[in-house]
From TrEMBL, chain A:
Record bears the keyword ATP-binding: no
Main location group: membrane
UniProt keywords, alphabetically: Cell membrane, Membrane, Transmembrane, Transmembrane helix
Lineage: Bacteria, Pseudomonadati, Pseudomonadota, Alphaproteobacteria, Hyphomicrobiales
UniProt membrane topology term: Multi-pass membrane protein
Compartment(s): Cell membrane
InterPro entries assigned: ABC_transp_permease
Name by which UniProt lists this protein: ABC transporter permease
Keyword Transmembrane helix: yes
Domain of life from the UniProt record: Bacteria
Automatic annotation (TrEMBL), chain B:
InterPro entries: ABC_transp_permease
Alphabetized Pfam families for the sequence: BPD_transp_2
Keyword Cell membrane found: yes
Name this protein carries in UniProt: ABC transporter permease
Keywords from the named record: Cell membrane, Membrane, Transmembrane, Transmembrane helix
PANTHER family given in the database record: ABC TRANSPORTER PERMEASE PROTEIN, SUGAR ABC TRANSPORTER INTEGRAL MEMBRANE PROTEIN-RELATED
Length: 359, 311
C-alpha cells in the first residue's frame, strides 16, 4: 500500500505529439479488441476478418485505389472542419455543404455544354460556391447575432439531403438507363492517373498543405490564429474579428463543396441520394483526430479511410453497414478518451505530498 | 375548426418525442455537458422498447427498459466526457454512430413489425370536453401528460426552487467556483448527464411505442438533432423546451396534413419544414428582440471539461 501511495497521477496540460500517438495506438488496439470480442460473440472469426482486411485494402492495387478514393473527400471535409476550428468554431454541416457542392457541380455538368477542361473548372467553381452559399446563413447569424453555429450548420444537412434526394428521384432522374434514385451521368470527368484514382486526390493532398502555409506565414493567418486563441484580445489588437470569421466560415463551406464536386466528377459521376456517405460527419472526426493541424488532417483521414475500407470489406464478409457504423463509433469513443489519458503521468510524490493529495 | 383540432392533436403527439429528448438535453447542458449523442440514444431506446414489448407486451415495461438502456449508455458517455474529460463533440458523434448502428443491427428482425403493445389514449374526464384543447390535449396517451406537464414541472422545481438545483446550475456556470464551495462537480455532472441520456432513450421508446408505433431503420430521422437545437431555442429552460417542441410538432403536423390533403407541394419540401423552422426559430428572435436573449444565454461552463488540478 505504501508503495502505491507514493505514486500519484498528475495532469500535464501540454503533451508531446508522440505521447498522444502512443495513447491512440493503444486505444485503437483496445477498440479492436472489444470489436473482436463482439464479432466473435456474433459468430464471426475476427482473425480471419482481420487478415482479409489487411490483404484486400493494403496488399492489393485495387485496395490502394479505393483507399485513395476514400481519402480524397475525407481530407477535404476534415480540412473544412479544421479551417473553422482554427477560429474557434465548429462546422458540423460539412455533410450538407458536400451535398450542395455536388448538386451545383451536377447542375453545371448536366445542363451546360463546353470543352472539358473549361467545364471542369466551371464545375469546380460551382461546387465551391455551392458549399459557401450553404453555410452563408449560419455564417451571418453567427457573425452578427452570435447564433450557435453547431446547430444551424447541422440542421442544413437534412435540408441538403432532402433537396438532393428530391432532384435525383424527381426532375433530374436518369431516364435513359433507369437507375433508381440517381441523375444521369455527368459527361465531364476528372482525369485518372492511377487506375481509377483521379487528380482530385492530388488537389486534396495540396489543399491542407496550402492552408497550413497560409496560416503560418501570412499576416492573415496570424490574425486567424490569434482570433481563434483569444477573440477579445484579437479585437483589441485591431483585427476585424467579424470579417475574418465570415471569410473563414465561407472558406470552410467552399472546401466541403469542392469535396462534393470532386466526388461527382471524379468518383461517382452521378448525383444520388447517399452520395455524401457521411463524409461530412467523418470530417469532424478527422479534424478532431488531427488536433487542429492542417497537415495532421491527412494522417487523420488516412486512419479514417482505412477504417472505412475495412468496413467495405467487412460488408462483403457478411457484416451490415450498421454494424460497421457502430464499430466506427466505438473506435472514435476510445480515441477521444485516449487523447485525455495521454495527458496523465504517474509521478513519485513525497510521502507528505501524497498524504495531502489523498486528504 | 376541425382542421385546427386535427393539427394540434398530431402536434402534441409528434412534439412529445422532441420534448422528452430536449428535456434530457437540458439536464446535460445545465451541468455543462454538450451531448450530441441524443440521436443514437433515441435509436437505442426505440429498438429496446420494441424488443421489450415483444417479450412482455406491456408498454410501461418497454419504456422502463428503454430508460435503463439509456442510463447504461449515458453512464458510458458520462464516463468518457465527465470522468475522463474526453472531447464532448467527438464523443457525442461517436455515441450517435454507435447507438444508431447498434440499434439497426439489433432491430433487424423487428423492422416494420407493429409494436406488440402501445400506449393507449386516456381521456381525462371533464377536461376532454373543452373546445379544441379537450380533443387535442386531454385525449392523449399517458406519456403526453408526463412529458408536457409533470416531467418539466419536476425539473423546473428542482433546478430553480431548491438548494440542490442552485448547486447544479453552479456546476454548469462555473465549475471551479462550485468546486471551491464544496459541491461535488464530477458526481453531479455524471448523474445529470446519465439521467438526461435516459430521457433521450425514453424519447425513442415514445416514438416506437406511442407515436409511429413500430421500429424501422431511420425511424428517428434526425429528431435527436432537432432536440439538441431546441434546447438552445428554449434558453435551457424545461418549459421552454416543451413549448419549442410543441411548435415543431405543429410544423410537422402541417406537413402531414399537407401530404394527406394533396397540397401541390412535393412531400420532400414539406419534410424540410421542421429543420428550416428550427433554423428560423433560432435566428429570428436574436435579431428581432435582442433584449429577450439576455435571459436565455448558455451556461458559461458548457462544453468545457473541468480539471481540478488545472484550476
Amino acid at each position: 500500500m505504501s508503495g502505491l501511495q507514493s505514486l500519484r497521477l498528475v495532469r500535464v496540460s501540454a503533451v508531446s505529439g508522440r505521447r498522444i500517438l502512443a495513447a491512440r495506438v493503444l486505444s485503437f488496439i483496445a477498440a479492436l479488441a472489444v470489436g473482436a470480442i463482439v464479432l466473435a460473440a456474433c459468430g464471426f472469426d475476427p482473425l480471419h476478418l482481420g487478415t482479409q482486411i489487411i490483404k484486400k485494402s493494403l496488399g492489393s492495387r485495387f485496395g490502394l485505389e479505393d483507399l485513395g478514393l476514400l481519402l480524397t473527400p475525407l481530407i477535404l471535409t476534415g480540412l473544412a472542419v479544421t479551417v473553422m476550428m482554427k477560429i474557434g468554431l465548429w462546422n458540423i454541416g460539412a455533410d450538407g455543404q458536400f451535398y450542395i457542392g455536388a448538386f451545383a457541380a451536377t447542375a453545371i455538368g448536366l445542363f451546360v455544354k463546353g470543352p472539358e477542361p473549361f467545364m471542369l473548372l466551371l464545375c469546380f467553381i460551382a461546387g465551391a460556391a455551392g458549399g459557401a452559399v450553404w453555410i452563408l446563413v449560419p455564417t451571418l447569424a453567427r457573425a452578427y447575432g452570435k447564433v450557435d453555429e453547431i446547430i444551424t450548420t447541422l440542421l442544413l444537412n437534412f435540408v441538403a439531403l432532402l433537396l438532393v434526394y428530391y432532384v435525383a428521384t424527381g426532375p433530374w432522374r436518369d431516364r435513359t438507363t433507369g437507375t433508381v434514385a440517381s441523375t444521369g451521368r455527368v459527361p465531364y470527368e476528372m482525369p485518372d492517373f492511377f487506375g481509377s484514382l483521379h487528380w482530385g486526390f492530388v488537389i486534396a493532398l495540396i489543399a491542407p498543405v496550402l492552408f497550413g502555409l497560409l496560416l503560418r506565414y501570412t499576416k492573415w493567418g496570424y490574425e486567424i490564429r490569434l482570433t481563434g486563441a483569444n477573440p477579445e484580445a484579437a479585437h483589441y489588437a485591431g483585427i476585424p474579428v467579424r470579417r475574418r470569421m465570415i471569410t473563414i466560415m465561407l472558406l470552410s463551406g467552399a472546401i466541403a463543396g469542392i469535396a462534393g464536386m470532386l466526388e461527382v466528377t471524379g468518383t461517382v459521376h452521378r448525383l444520388q441520394g447517399g452520395i455524401s456517405n457521411n463524409y461530412g460527419y467523418l470530417g469532424v472526426m478527422v479534424a478532431v483526430l488531427a488536433r487542429g493541424s492542417p497537415a495532421g488532417v491527412i494522417a487523420g483521414a488516412l486512419l479514417m479511410a482505412i477504417i472505412l475500407n475495412a468496413g467495405i470489406i467487412l460488408q462483403t464478409q457478411g457484416l451490415t453497414t450498421a454494424a460497421v457504423l457502430a464499430l466506427t463509433g466505438l473506435i472514435m469513443m476510445f480515441t477521444a478518451v485516449a487523447d485525455q489519458f495521454a495527458h496523465y503521468r504517474l509521478v513519485r510524490a513525497l510521502p507528505q505530498a501524497a498524504a495531502t493529495a489523498a486528504g | 375548426m376541425e382542421l385546427i383540432t386535427g393539427i394540434l392533436t398530431t402536434a402534441f403527439l409528434a412534439g412529445g418525442v422532441l420534448a422528452l429528448a430536449a428535456l434530457g438535453e437540458v439536464l446535460a447542458e445545465r451541468v455543462g455537458v454538450f451531448n450530441l449523442g441524443v440521436e443514437g440514444l433515441m435509436a437505442l431506446g426505440g429498438v429496446t422498447g420494441i424488443i421489450a414489448v415483444t417479450l412482455y407486451p406491456n408498454p410501461f415495461f418497454g419504456f422502463a427498459m428503454a430508460l435503463l438502456v439509456g442510463l447504461g449508455f449515458g453512464a458510458l458517455f458520462a464516463l468518457a466526457t465527465v470522468v475522463f474529460r474526453a472531447n464532448q463533440v467527438l464523443c457525442g458523434l461517436a455515441l450517435t454512430m454507435l447507438g444508431s448502428g447498434l440499434a439497426v443491427t439489433i432491430g433487424k428482425s423487428y423492422s416494420g413489425m407493429p409494436a406488440k403493445a402501445t400506449f393507449e389514449k386516456i381521456i381525462v374526464p371533464y377536461l376532454s370536453d373543452l373546445p379544441i384543447l379537450g380533443r387535442a390535449f386531454f385525449s392523449q396517451n399517458i406519456l403526453v401528460y408526463l412529458i408536457y406537464l409533470i416531467i418539466p414541472a419536476i425539473i423546473s422545481f428542482v433546478l430553480f426552487r431548491t438548494r440542490h438545483g442552485m448547486n447544479v446550475r453552479a456546476v454548469g456556470e462555473n465549475p471551479a467556483a462550485a468546486d471551491s464551495a464544496g459541491i461535488p462537480v464530477t458526481l453531479i455532472r455524471f448523474c445529470y448527464v446519465t439521467i438526461g441520456a435516459a430521457l433521450g432513450a425514453g424519447a425513442g421508446a415514445y416514438l416506437t411505442l406511442a407515436f409511429v408505433p413500430s421500429w424501422s431503420d431511420g425511424v428517428v430521422a434526425g429528431r435527436g438533432w432537432i432536440a439538441v437545437a431546441l434546447v438552445i431555442f428554449a434558453g435551457y429552460r424545461p418549459f421552454g423546451a416543451v413549448f419549442g417542441a410543441l411548435l415543431f410538432g405543429v410544423i410537422t403536423a402541417i406537413g402531414y396534413v399537407g401530404q394527406a390533403r394533396n397540397w401541390p407541394i412535393s412531400p420532400t419540401f414539406l419534410s424540410m419544414l421542421p429543420y428550416l423552422g428550427t433554423m428560423l426559430a433560432m435566428i429570428l428572435p436574436v435579431f428581432l428582440w435582442r433584449r429577450l436573449r439576455l435571459g436565455f444565454t448558455a451556461p458559461a461552463g458548457l462544453g468545457v471539461p473541468f480539471f481540478r488540478d488545472e484550476r
